[in-house]
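Researcher: Here's a chain I'd like modeled. Treat it as a single chain, no partners, no ligands.
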Amino acid sequence: MPITVLVVDDQELMRAGLKMVLGAHPDIEVVGEADNGAAAISRTAELRPDVVLMDVRMPITDGVTATGKIIESGCGSRVLVMTTFDLDEHALGALRAGASGFLLKDTPPEDLISAIRSVAAGDAVVSPKVTKRLLDRLIADDPAAGRDPAILDVLTAREREVLEHIAVGRSNAEIAGALFLSEATVKTHVGRVLTKLNLRDRVQAVVLAYETGLVRPGNA
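Model: Modeled as a single isolated chain. C-alpha cells:
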C-alpha cells in the first residue's frame, strides 16, 4: 500500500510543486490538499492520511494549532511540518504540539521523500541538534519558559542519563560508547524513557529535557 499524504500550504504554487514531486514516486500517493489549518484538520479527519505535510504559517488556523488538533484527535496521522527558516519558533511550537519533525521548504526533493517515508514508518526526521538550536534561542528569549522537573522523577538514574545524551543529539551508538553499554541496552533505555514520559519520539524527548532544565542552553 502506498504512503498516503495530505499536502497543506496556503500557496497554490507550493502545493502544486509538492504534489508533482510526490507524484513521481509510486510508493507515495497524495490523497488531498488544504490551504489553511482549519481545512487541514477537517481533511485529515476525512481522509486519514499516513502523513500530513504541514505549512506552519497560514491564515484562519496556523499549522501549529492544526498540528495539535490532529494529534489530539488520535486519528493516527503523523505530521511533518515545513518552514522557511530553520530557527522558526513556529516550527518548535509544532514539535511541541506533536509533529514528528520539520523540514525547510528548500529541502531537496530526495530528502523530502526520505523524510516522508521515515515519518510514515514511525520515526522522527528532525535532528535533535537542530531542535537544540531552536530551544537555545527560545530559552534565551524567555528564561522562564519551562516545565516542572518533577516530571522526570519516574525515570531511573540511568534513564535520566540516557535522556541527557539524547537531548544533545547523540545517537544510540554514541550513547553506548559514552556509557559503556551495548546498543541493544541503550535502545531499551530509550524506549523506557519515551514510554514513561509519554513521548512519541526522540525529538519530543529533546524538547522535554530542555523544558525541565535537565539540559541547559549551550550544553554540547
